[in-house]
Amino acid sequence: MDVELKSELKGIYCNSLTQYSRFITREVNIGGVKMGGTQPIRIQSMTTAFTMDTEASVAQSIRMIDAGCEYVRITAPSLKEAQNLAEIKKGLAEKGYHTPIVADIHFTPNAAELAAKLIEKVRVNPGNYADKKKFEEIDYTPEAYEKELARIKKKFAPLVEICKAHGTAMRIGTNHGSLSDRIMSWYGDTPKGMVESAMEFIRVCRELDYHELVISMKSSNTQVMVQAYRLLVQTMVAEGMNYPLHLGVTEAGDGEDGRIKSAVGIGTLLEDGLGDTIRVSLTEEPEYEIPVAQALAQRYEQRKSVAPEAVEKPDFEIPASYSPFEYNKRASAELNTFIGGHQVPRVVLDLSDQNLKDAQILAPAGYNYSPILDKYNMGDQSIDFAYLGNELPSFNFPGNLKQLYNYKTWLLLKSKMNCHPLFSLKEYLTATEKDNSLNLVSVCNKDLDSDDFAALPFDKTLVFVLETSEEHGMADQRAFFFKLMNAGIDTPVIIKRNYTFKDSESIGEKELKTQLHGATDLGALLLDGLGDGVWLDAPQVSTKFRVSTSFGILQATRSRISKTEYISCPSCGRTQFDLQETTQMIRSKTDHLKGVKIGIMGCIVNGPGEMADADYGYVGTGPGKITLYRSKEVVKKNVSSDNALDELINIIKADGVWVEKEV
């Protein structure tokens, strides 16, 4: 069943693909802290304390608010927790805090109806508010499906009327991991299914003249998440709606992985002017989420937004092979069986400022040199190109690491084995000598309209290194790709981004911004299948940090897998075990299983659904009880938490996936 779109809207999900223009949404009042319209991008998080522990919930909420949290979300799985939200609100007020509270509801409509009378906003998940999930495929006729929609309205309408009467806002929050069997049967496990899951509820609200809505489309898969939000905006606009957007990547994980993955998903949408509030879901204390969310949002506070009516029409057409709602890798030539085509995106690292007299400088780049054996050992995150500029190393490089030199220095090399030149555009046109396998040429979007670019001799050795100096650099580089695609040019492209920060900023601030900005700018292009390599140039942070960030971005976009992926939720009052401790315990035993995805869920709300995106799952089902999954199939129920990790490892071994960890 296709979503009908107005013809002039097809392919467009934002105001502009070339200029930064914030998508203006309907303003919603949430306890006096307004969202949407021209309001700032709001920051929120969720408590992890048990909701019935009023003192702990109040204390944790205060830590979050002091860190900059503007809405505090608290789980209310039953009537008693919903009732206790009033006590938490009272406790906060007594201490001088009046930040709006959001009740998080999943399976219990009566708890949502009670909470809506007590606090400022309720979040409902359409996947399990009126439906139950049994992983059954149901064959509906159109008439039968219409009856299901009538049933949903009957169950949902009372909450809408209560919210109207009490001035309570609502978030309709679709989770990829908890789509109902009904939606899965009718639309499939797709972004379209996610959008329609929400739209069914949104249409009920509109019919009842209730509009204090915020909408979200969350997934642990950044490709699915971004595509769903884009399609949501497309669908809302086609139906005359513009409700504000809550952005988030669910089950992002912890540490570097969680920050990068969140930035890939959230940042990609912010770049296109979408998003009114953000929550970064980390498997850490909730107050640690706030600085990450703030750093993502602050990047757009100073960026000038072009009004929708002032947006200029781009000087290119959207390529026929491009769709913002599904992943298609740009077709590029495969050169030297190394870059482009079906090869994974390559990683470039600038080592031109390093001491090139010691082979140990390659260790952070994934090549550990053993002087005794006189050989290199490669790690899982080993770079593909080392840019050396005009510097010459005094030791031998590993045979599978390609060296890049500025063209004039490359000319002087006695041996050019595994060494390749980097040209400016003019240098390439006038070069007296070129490499017979790979020639890299630095270009920018503006070069496409130049006589020099028109004079390029295209062959199967050419690779573009795409740079930008524009503030809205992601869109500038995206335009370059679109123009190449329209011209039928299949030259591989390495995306290069340069980042420098104020000297007054701490190394931690510089590292965080490198992670978040790099994940946004590079990740947004990679999610759309654009790019055959990445070059993250941030000289103020260490080479090791640049390498891990580069590979982290590729992992988060699922462009190149170099390590185990953990789909771990951020914890909340429903959690059945200590998520941080358990995640680290599982990571310590399985982090060598390259390419394996392990879901770690604290409760059953999203656990079964998110397992569809994981290879194996570890889900809390009760105090001290764990259910283990293979994909979305339950393998063992109610295993003691004392034995659950060993049982999980046995399942992996039985599947022939396990390898022993190298010491």
Walk me through what this model shows.
There is one protein chain. By secondary structure, the protein is α/β, with parallel strands linked by helices. The chain folds into 3 domains: 7-310, Dihydropteroate synthase-like (TIM Barrel); 346-556, Dihydropteroate synthase-like (TIM Barrel); 565-654, 2-Layer Sandwich (Sulfite Reductase Hemoprotein, domain 1). 34% of the residues lie in helices and 18% in strands. Strand 21, helix 17 (579-590) and strand 22 (597-601) form a beta-alpha-beta unit. Helix 14 runs parallel beside helix 15. The longest helix has 25 residues, at 142-166. The chain is globular. Mean pLDDT is 92; it is low at 1-11.
Tell me how many strands there are: 25
Mean pLDDT: 92
Determine the N-to-C terminus distance. Answer: 53 Å
Q: Which band does the percent of strand residues land in?
A: 15-25%
Q: How many distinct helices?
A: 19
CATH topology of the largest domain: TIM Barrel
CATH superfamily of the largest domain: Dihydropteroate synthase-like
What's the number of domains?
3
Q: Work out the radius of gyration.
A: 26 Å
Largest sheet: 8 strands, parallel
Q: Which spans of ≥5 residues are poorly predicted at pLDDT below 50? A: 1-11
What structural class do you assign from the helix and strand content?
alpha/beta
Share of helix among residues? 25-40%
The gross shape turns out to be globular
Q: Which CATH class of the largest domain applies here?
A: Alpha Beta
List the helices and strands and how they pair.
Layout (H helix, E strand, L loop, with lengths): L27 E3 L2 E3 L6 E5 L7 H14 L3 E5 L3 H16 L6 E5 L3 H7 L5 E4 L1 H4 L12 H25 L2 E7 L5 H7 L3 H17 L5 E6 L3 H17 L7 E2 L7 H17 L5 E2 L10 H10 L47 E5 L16 E4 L4 E4 L6 E5 L12 E5 H6 L6 E5 L1 H6 L8 E5 L7 H4 L7 E5 L6 H15 L5 E6 L8 H21 L5 E5 L5 H14 L8 E4 L10 H12 L6 E5 L5 H4 L5 E7 L2 E6 L2 E8 L3 H11 L9
Parallel strand pairs: 3-4, 3-10, 4-5, 5-6, 6-7, 7-8, 9-10, 11-14, 11-20, 14-15, 15-16, 16-17, 17-18, 18-19, 19-20, 21-22, 22-23
Antiparallel strand pairs: 1-2, 12-13, 23-24, 24-25
Helix pairs in contact: 1-2, 2-3, 5-7, 6-7, 7-8, 8-9, 9-15, 9-16, 14-15, 15-16
